[in-house]
Amino acid sequence: MKTIHYQFHLDMRVVVALVAVCLTNVASALRADRFDDYTLMGFYAPASAGAFQDAFDCLDDGRVIFIAANDVFIESSPGSRTFKALGPLTGQGAPVSYPAFIRVTPDGSLFAVGNNFDAVGIFRLRDLRGVWYRVDHFDADWLDNRHLVIRAGEVVTLLDTKSSPEKPVNPILIDNCPVSAGITFDVDDNLYTGNGFGNGEPSDTGWIMYFPAKRWRGVLRGDPVIDFEEEGVLVVDLLSATALGFDAEGHLHVGGGDFDTGDLDYAGLVNAGAIADAIAGRGPADPEDPDEVRKLDPDSNTPDNWYDVTISAVKRELLIRDGSTSTVYVHGLPGGVKCDNVRKLKAKCRAGSHIRIRVRLRDGRNDGDTMYVAADDIPFLETVKGKKLISRSGGWDAGEHSVSLVDPSECLSPVIVDCK
Questions:
Q1: Long-range contacts made by residues 208-215, C-beta under 8 angstroms, separation at least 24?
Q2: CATH 2.60.40 matches 339-419
Q3: What is the assigned CATH class of domain 40-332?
Q4: Res. 9: pLDDT tops 60
């Protein structure tokens, strides 16, 4: 009996191993599908202070936060595409003219702003009360709700936002960095930053480097500061290594542009598998391989766009912002509804300039799935309930507006509504 019992456990370990392999393969396939499936659903234009005077980020609930020079705006609700003013920034680092970044803490209670000059401000979202730290900066990312990693010139530092603004605790983690670039963490707190405008000694413009969490945490315990050029692992050479961040599947988004070489006019998305291969020593991702790097240019009519990028994790959207106009291009993931189940699209504008869009389906097979509808190219992500979908949005100007179904696309012709 003992022998049989032992053999049973051996067999179960084999089964578990086989199941794990299958699940890994399924997860990899799903990850590849999502990497390929980000689709332009539409665009919108928030308030702007002018070319390159704005910055944006996303809260964990899906709302977008926007700073136009010195004024802060927040989306009224996730995916509404309308913004309410929170007010201006105050204090010794304000007013801000050309914000370097705005970054929200994981819990959504605070945000950091770089004034693109001599200070980083930490503000409470609920009332804009805050303090300024006199620290150099170019980009930043939150490690947690207290510590802000900052890319500043030739160094990477870690600011303790509970420390005194007069004597900030802001130790150097990495030095010997070339000109500033973006910076971000992955889900395991590994750190990524790049060369924003280099000279090829040895790194060059667009090189994005990986630094393991264990190594940079060791610096905080007394280990030597990391040397960017000697210790960084090259993940990819793309654009100017700015606007770095990860989606839920571990794909890395990249913005900016290398005007010296002409590597510009798109936003990059680097496949998680290609990043893992680079870290494992199999070489950096290939920017010319569409299976490893997607190049997204939502404004194909302009030849030299400079794009900023962020992720709305809740809405599963890749948001690409044009630096010159601040137009935000929404790249969503198709929701699974097919044209053969779409029956009718209707819309009307009600009192108070509220547009109501209604999509009827032939049967209930897509109950719970999502679809995108759009009014004047502004996309709204909605959920199917039974055999119908309803979208409501307010604040439309008087006159005619075009309403369309964009996911799935090309099923039905647009309809025109008149807001009187």
A1: 208/181, 208/234, 208/235, 208/236, 208/237, 208/238, 208/241, 208/244, 208/252, 208/254, 209/233, 209/234, 209/235, 210/234, 210/235, 210/275, 210/278, 210/279, 211/174, 213/188, 213/189
A2: yes
A3: mainly beta
A4: no
